[in-house]
Every structure is written in C-alpha cells, then in structure tokens.
Amino acid sequence: MLPAALLAAVNALPVLKSLRATHRAPDEALKCEVEALAHDAFNPAKPAKDQSALALFRGGLWFAVDELDAAHSIFQDDHSPEGSYWHGMLHRREGDFPNAKYWLQRAGRIPALKAVPEFDPVRFVSLCEKASRLSPKEDSVELLEMQRMEWELLLAAAHARAVQS
From CA 117, how far away is CA 106, in angstroms rounded? Predict the structure, then answer.
C-alpha cells in the first residue's frame, strides 16, 4: 500500500476516469503535478534504492494521466514481468487488445496481484474490449473499479520495491 500522504496525492489526480485513453495530452499543470509527485515520493532525503522500480512508478503515474508516450518508453525498456504487465495495461488502454493480451501473458501472474486471486488480466482485457464496442460509450463502474484497483496495486508495488533496501 502507498504511504497515506502519497495515496492522498495520487487520489487527487484526475486519473483513469475511462477504460480507454482520452488521446489528449495532459495540460502542463498536470504534467508538473505528476513530476512533483514523483519527486516528492523519492528525493535526496529518501532516495529510491531500485531505479527500475522508480522508473515503473513514474511510468505508472504517466499512464494514469494518459501521457502514454512517456509511459510507453519506460515500460518497453523494462523486461521484467512487472514491466511487461505495465506494457500490457498500456496497450489495453490504447485499445490495442491483442497486443495487451500478448504482454500480459508474457508477464504471467505477478506478485502485486496475487492478493486478488480471482482477477484474470487477460479476461479483463476481453471485458474491456467488449465494453468498448457497446453503445452508449459509458464505461461500467465495475470495470473502472477493477482498472483502478489493478493500477493502485502495481503502483504501490513499484513504490515498495523502489524504497526497499
């Protein structure tokens, strides 16, 4: 779980309000807010001990505000199961469902999601794909909650790994 202050800051961001990316770049103020959040989470007083986990944490923040190019460049360079999982989430958010399934299957069952044994990431992609075809284009509250839960667990895992000695 994220530290309380960090969780509050993350929850204040306008993130993941839909299953698919908005395809609008976040405004400069939001980009600055994300950078400040990442800086405040890891700074000289509490430096990250695992740089790859720090990168995934940053990528997770970019992912959440639909700065997908920045997130993609981080995720595609991380060949760990967690990096592959984030990569799959990103492709799901873009609507590239076959590619999302590929990356999620490549990642396998990652530790961050073992606390939710009934969650099947590949099935979730299929549910998102089906939802994307439905009319009206209003996302299911259940799917949005699943997306948010998945994101928070992965973000918290990246943070925890980054601060561990």
Answer: 18
Measured distance CA(1)–CA(44) in Å, rounded: 22
Cα within 13 Å of Cα(125), Cβ side? 23
Distance from C-alpha of 149 to C-alpha of 10, rounded to nearest angstrom: 13
Q: Of 7-11, 45-49, 113-117, where does the model show the most confidence?
A: 113-117
125 within 8 A of 100, measured Cβ to Cβ:
yes
Q: How confident is the model at residue 21 (pLDDT cuts 50, 70, 90)?
A: confident
Query: What crossing angle do the helices spanning 51-64 and 68-75 adopt, rounded to 10°?
Result: 150
Place of tokens 């492709």: 91
Burial-class residue 109 by CB neighbours within 10 Å (0-12, 13-18, 19+): middle
Is the pLDDT score of 86 beyond 90?
yes
